[in-house]
Amino acid sequence: MKLLLFISNAFINTMGITQPSPKAANRAAWFIFLMLSAVLTVVVTIALLAIRWASQH
C-alpha cells in the first residue's frame, strides 16, 4: 500500500494537484493503480497480437 501511496503522491505533486485528505489520497492511489494496470494490460495485449500476427505472415 505504501508503494501505491508513493506513486499517487508523485503523480499529484508532479501535476500540481492540491493535496487530498488521507481518505481521498487512498482512493486516488487505487484509481491510479487501476488505470496503470489497464494501460499495461492493453499494451501487452497489443504487443502479443502484433507478435502473433507477424509470426503468421
Overall geometry? elongated
The secondary structure category is: mainly alpha
Strand count, sense and barrel status of the largest sheet are: none
Query: What ranges have pLDDT less than 50 throughout 5 or more consecutive residues?
Result: none
Distance between the termini: 44 Å
Write the H/E string, N to C. HH
Radius of gyration: 16 Å
Which strand-content bin applies to the residues?
A: under 5%
For the secondary structure, the number of strands is: 0
Helix content: over 70%
Count of helices? 2
Mean pLDDT: 91
Total domains, how many? 1
Keywords: Membrane, Transmembrane, Transmembrane helix
Task: Describe what this molecule looks like in 3D.
Helix content is 86%, strand content 0%. The model has no long low-confidence stretch (mean pLDDT 91). The relative contact order is 0.12. The longest helix is centred in the C-terminal third of the chain and has 35 residues, at 22-56. It has helices at 2-15, 22-56. It has one domain. With 57 residues, the chain is an all-alpha fold. The N and C termini lie far apart (44 Å). The chain contains two helices and no strands. The radius of gyration is 16 Å and the shape is elongated.
